[in-house]
Amino acid sequence: MTCAERIESIFRGEMVDQVPFALKGWRVPSCQAERELRNAGMGIIDACSVYRTHSPNVSTKTIQYSENGQALQRTIVETPVGEVTWVSRRMAAEKTEATTWLIEPPFKGPEDYKVLRFMAEDKVYEPAYEGFLKAQAQMDGDAFFKTSAPGMALHTIMYTFMDVEIFSIEWADRRDELIALHEAMSKNQRDIYGIIAQSPALVVQCGGNYASEVLGKQRFVDFVLPHWEEVCGILHEGDKLVGCHLDANNKLWAEEVGASDLDWLEAFSPAPDTDMTVADARAVWPGKTLFINFPSGLHLESPEVIAAHTRQILKDAAPGDRFIVGITENVPENRWRESFRTILDTCHEYGQLPIDVSRF
């Protein structure tokens, strides 16, 4: 089986030959070690958008500059009702996932709500299926491609327009304005789901990165669950498999996740990184595909420790269907060669399906 065939079969719930080890995107440089790992069976789960976004009545300009030795970018968005600006710093190493740090958020005060609402309502979308199909054809089975849908709007407001402190103050003082912005964004985003439902993508990631310590149980129930219900209702009509990136502590809302219409979960990071093991997740999320993140801190351990944890993960995942041992976070440059080889070899030895727990 090719990488794409094996990963697709797993997302569909089919029992294939073995539990795969796969990277989320191209997280390592092209080199001999990377080629050897992929030739030995390490897979890639990549992503490509299936829609384009336009804002006909909004103009955006960026200014690149340096301050205290740091390369920064100021973004200025002008609308008929005013403008907002923000400053960010992009951090990325070769072949890893880029991270943008928000130095100065767009939201400065109550007068910015009308600008942010206009920005949300002005967005229009159109299909862009050709890029997805081209990416699939170019990789020719060497990578499986998924796509993305927007996450819950209130979470975007919290982390993209504000920050946790500003959001907390606005939640206390101007909650109606916050929720009105959330509703405007949510209404506009509904146009995206129909485009994705008709797209050639099978697997759709619908936002994520929800932290229970920040979001809290009640906001999760009031905002995330209805969002999932709406998105799944539309995308399931197009036979899509809908998932979410849940890489933090999930015990607080584990039962609600299990009862949701989600088909799969990305980046679940088992203990010791979070408050749930793979066994916990399999018990409370039956029937959902798990594309886990191998616990990040363990990459610093010896091969013997890494192998032992990989065996425990595979044992907890038995019989092994709907399961992918993955890397969804960045790994130190000086550790991935040894760590990835150990995980891959252990998956080959103990991850034959169905998993026989008597071998452990």
Q: Overall mean pLDDT score?
A: 96
In order across it, which strands form the biggest sheet?
A: 1-2-9-10-11-12-13-14
Number of domains: 2
The succession of helices and strands, N to C, reads HEHEEEEEEHEHEHHHEHHEHEHEHEH
Description:
The protein has 360 residues and is of the alpha/beta class. The protein has two domains: 3-55 and 123-359, TIM Barrel (Alpha-Beta Barrel), CATH 3.20.20; 56-122, no CATH class. The protein has helices at 3-11, 32-39, 113-122, 129-139, 153-161, 164-173, 175-197, 212-215, 217-237, 254-259, 278-284, 303-317, 336-350; strands at residues 21-24, 43-47, 51-54, 59-67, 70-79, 82-91, 99-104, 124-127, 144-149, 203-208, 241-245, 264-268, 289-293, 323-327. The strands form three sheets. The protein has an eight-stranded parallel barrel, surrounded by six helices. Strands 4-5-6-7 form a four-stranded antiparallel beta sheet. A two-stranded antiparallel ribbon has the order 3-8. Helix 12 links the parallel strand 13 and strand 14. 36% of the residues are buried. The model has no long low-confidence stretch (mean pLDDT 96).
